[in-house]
Structure formats: C-alpha cells, structure tokens
Design a protein that fits this description.
Blueprint lengths: L13 E4 L16 E4 L10 H7 L4 E7 L21 E6 L8 H4 L4 H10 L4 E3 L4 H7 L2 E5 L4 H10 L6 E8 L4 H13 L2 H6 L12 H14 L1 E2 L2 H14 L3 E6 L3 H7 L1
Parallel strand pairs: 1-2, 1-9, 2-3, 3-4, 4-5, 5-6, 6-7, 7-8, 7-9
Helix pairs in contact: 3-4, 6-8
C-alpha cells in the first residue's frame, strides 16, 4: 500500500481527479493514499468497478451534489446505490454548471443535513454554503483562497476539532507562462480577481501589464504553484494553520503530476 511518505516531495496528502480529463484508474500511478473524484455531470461518472478497484488499497471519495437527481436525499437518490462499498462521499451543494434549472432551485440545507445523516463519514464541501457545511460537524472541504490560512486559524481558535481539508489546483513548475496557462482563468473567476482585472484582459500567458501582475498574484492565492519544494512549503503552512488534509488537483494534467508528485 502507498504511504503518504511517498508524496513527501510536495507534502500533499491527496489527489483530486476529473473524469473528463483522465480515467480514474490513473490514480494508481500517483503516490497518494487518498483520491478524490470530482463531479462533472452525471454522464461523466466513472464506473463502479474502477472505483471499487481503487478502493482496495486507497481511500476513495466521490463528489456527490445533493441537489442533483440521483444524489438528492429528499428525492431521487438512486445513484447512491451505485457507489461501491468502501467509497466515501464528498457532499456538496453542486456547481450550477452541472445542474439543471430545477436542480439549482432546490434548497441546500435540508438536503445536506439529510445526506450527512445517511453518510456521517462524508466530507462536506463548503463553497457557497459555509455555515450550513459547518453545522454538519463533518470534515470541512474548502477551496484554497487568499484567506484560507486565516480562516483555518480562526476555526481552530474557536475550538473546532473537526478535520479540515483544503482543495487546491496545483502546478508544479516555476515557468510563469505555464502557470498562467494552467490556472490563470481559474483564478480570474474568483470575484476579487475579476474586479481587479482590466476589462477584456486575457487570463493566460498572453496577459501583460496590469493584468499579468494581478494574475501572477492571484494564482498564488488560489492555487499551489511553483517547484515541488515551494509547494511543500505552502502545504506545510496550511498544516500549521489547521488543515488536516491538502488535496491537489493536477491542473497541467495527470502526466505532469505523476512525473513530479
């Protein structure tokens, strides 16, 4: 069985994979005990057999939006039976891009609470529903932001002893153009960054002037970027602030991650 020591070069505890970008079996090529599979729509769910095979020697979690048909504990929850034994859930409200208009209109709080009652070992995604997620008492799963370290310390200072996991797009290179191509657009979608960017400015390596300055700072707020050593230092800082698990998403593709993770 792989151990977390195998990933010591970056310090990351887990990897997140997107089924539209790679087969989840690729997790077997990566040195992590924990694999989180993102949700990108019902049509992109990996097959149960692949998840079960991974779960034989790894911890596997699958993101399940509680407002989506198939995972709605107050409606159609038929897909919960698709999850193999031993595969845990990440309960989220669900990104609007992957939900129908009807699904987006559904109330989150009662569904998140009911889903956690049924799966008390689940992680709970906090994006957009921080207070509701915190009320479950489960592992809080947060997106890395410029305030994450401060927020983690505040939660610990307030006496929270639940596990705190952090999700971060990760780019293992010092090449600024490669970093911006990988996560510039991701960072630009964050509201504070969008407000700071000049109107119509490119958000990749073609950005210049003020736009490039804003993006170069923002990608370091919302992603883990740089050499493996630099990423390791950032992960250590998150751990010192209170994170129990740091999950890296290989933003340049799983092949680049496998070479350096």
């Amino acid at each position: 069985m792989l151990t977390s020591a195998d990933a010591a070069v970056t310090g990351l505890d887990a990897v997140a994979l997107k089924p539209t970008e790679c087969r989840v079996e690729r997790a077997a090529d990566l040195p992590f005990e924990t694999v989180a599979v993102d949700y990108e729509g019902r049509e992109h769910l990996p097959d149960a057999e692949s998840l079960a095979a991974l779960a034989e020697d790894r911890e596997v979690l699958v993101t399940t939006p509680v407002r989506a048909d198939g995972f709605d504990p107050l409606g159609d929850d038929s897909l919960t039976e698709w999850l193999p034994p031993g595969v845990r859930r990440v309960l989220v409200a669900g990104h609007p891009a992957y939900l129908s208009a009807e699904e987006r209109a559904r109330a989150v709080a009662p569904r998140l609470g009911e889903a956690f009652e049924r799966a008390p070992d689940a992680w709970v995604g906090t994006e957009g529903v921080e207070r509701v997620a915190l009320a479950t008492g489960g592992t809080q799963y947060e997106l890395l932001s410029r305030t994450t370290e401060r927020d983690l310390r505040s939660l610990r200072d307030a006496g929270l002893d639940a596990d705190l996991a952090v999700y971060a797009p990760t780019v293992l290179t010092d090449d600024e153009d490669a970093i911006l191509d990988a996560v510039g657009d991701y960072a630009a979608r964050r509201k504070p960054v969008g407000r700071a960017l000049p109107d119509g400015a490119p958000t990749d390596s073609t950005a210049t002037g003020r736009a490039r300055e804003v993006l170069s700072e923002a990608v370091r707020d919302y992603a883990l970027v740089g050499s493996p050593g630099t990423v390791r230092e950032r992960v250590a800082d998150l751990g010192d602030a209170g994170a129990t698990t740091v999950v890296g998403y290989p933003a340049r593709g799983v092949d680049a991650f496998a070479r350096q993770a």
